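2024-03-11 09:14:02 DEBUG pipeline.ingest accepted 1 chain
2024-03-11 09:14:02 DEBUG pipeline.ingest length=378
2024-03-11 09:14:03 DEBUG pipeline.predict start
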Amino acid sequence: MKVLHLISGGDTGGAKTHIISLLKGLNKLIDTKIICFIEDTFYTDAKAEGLNIEVYKQKSRSDMSVITRLADEIAKEDYQVIHCHGARANFIAMFLRHKIKKPMITTMHSDYKLDFKDNFYKRIIYTTLNTVALKKFKYFIAISDTFKEMLVERGFNSDSIFVAYNGIDFDSDLDYASKNSFLSRYNIEAADKKIVGIMARLDLVKDHETFIKAADKILKDRKDIKFLIAGEGNLDSRLKDMVSELGIEDNVHFLGFVKDMNSFFNAIDINVLCSVSESFPYVILEGARMSKPIISTNVGGIANLVRDGYNGYLFDVGEYDALAKRIITLVDNKELLEKMGKELYNNAKENFSYDSMAKTHLEIYKKIVKSEELRTKS
């Protein structure tokens, strides 16, 4: 079987981790290729992993000259399935479908209605275009059961939606800097202090304000905890102003975009996620790979990995008091902190490896090809 993956190429964070992890797993089973439309770190990182990737560079989002080139590539290589990821790829696929007779599927990595929530222009233009493009697809992969339910509620055909949870590479050796070395890059002195971290782009969906409010509540009584915020985005100035107004800038540090995520997770003691909406975020799996316990909002498919009170804690969206309470519980109980981190690692490795994800995807591809063959015969 041969499958072609289409993706923007400007992707960072979970989307990048997903594609690279998925293709590493799939390459053990089938023939795959990635075509992206922007040459950025995604391309170089995928190349470094030995993946078959090529750039069909677009001059702009509206540059549709790549359509004919894609159609020629698909005909030449006889790909059986075209797998799209993200708004740009979905938009291109909307036009590509008229030139090829191959089944196309798209993965719903996030809630498409919230992807551009922070930018009025992008929300009006890109969300609208992506919504139109999605309606043209016949097949979908949802990253969690709750995301499938969301799609069905919005009118998508349940029979055409498959579920495949994210997976990550637990086999390769991890390269990371020591805790002290990583922190010294940011001039952070954290001797004898516990470190709580959040890694997420700075936008409304990730709700960093809840993280900051919890930090403020804790820091009113104690100063033995450092809070690290890794990520960049439209809310950078707003969140920094909030920290400054609360007077907690000595203990809350903004790191900006952190490419070396393994070093970040090695440096922290507790991983936090405050998102209003998620599918099944890689940031939890990446922390789990380093045996870091998670305190997360109970959204999307997170509860399939995190068992509240066993290998992490779950709390309701916006409940910063609950978050603060759980942070203190783990900070003050080293044995519990280490136990939860180990249990999270064990669960993630057993059930959410990239090999497991790849096998699930292969079964989905087979079902799609078989369904299309039966439809053609009838």
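2024-03-11 09:14:41 DEBUG pipeline.report The longest strand covers residues 2-7.
2024-03-11 09:14:41 DEBUG pipeline.predict end
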